[in-house]
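Q: How would the structure tokens look for this protein?
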Amino acid sequence: MKPDDRLPKLLCFVFLFLAGIQTFHYYSQLPDIVASHFNRAGAANGWSAKKVFFEIYWGGLGLITLIALGVPRLVAWAPAALINLPNKDYWLAPERREEAIAYIGQQLMWFATATLALLIITIEWAIRANLAPEHRISSAAMWVLLAAYGLFVIQWLVRFLGKFVKTD
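A: Here is the predicted structure in token form.
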């Protein structure tokens, strides 16, 4: 059975749309030089030009999306000898290869979607810190966000590898 990747793709593109709205909304409000790095306590300790800040942001968004969309195509094209996957002889056999590649694509879209959410939230907090006089983000909130993302990554890895460890 081929997994359905429409929902994670839709969410991915919704997040990119929201990042576009975020950029459009805040760009003119920010000063030319913005706080772009924050220490563990949430205080700004690195600065960059606003244009560079958003270029790096959109470069990251684009790279995440490109990897999520491109890796399954590379896996579909690559010979099995170049693919590192548990039980790859079983999963990349002609009768299961399409299902395996579809699953990899679906899971990469979920991973990209979560990573885009992490990046958009983090940038939102950085932008808001730049609009506040003290230039601080909540380090507690950031640690909670990173912990939630870490738990997602662990769950994602268990699910992803769990699919390929078994041979039905």
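The CA atoms of residues 86 and 161 lie 7 Å apart.

The radius of gyration is 19 Å.

Upvote if useful.
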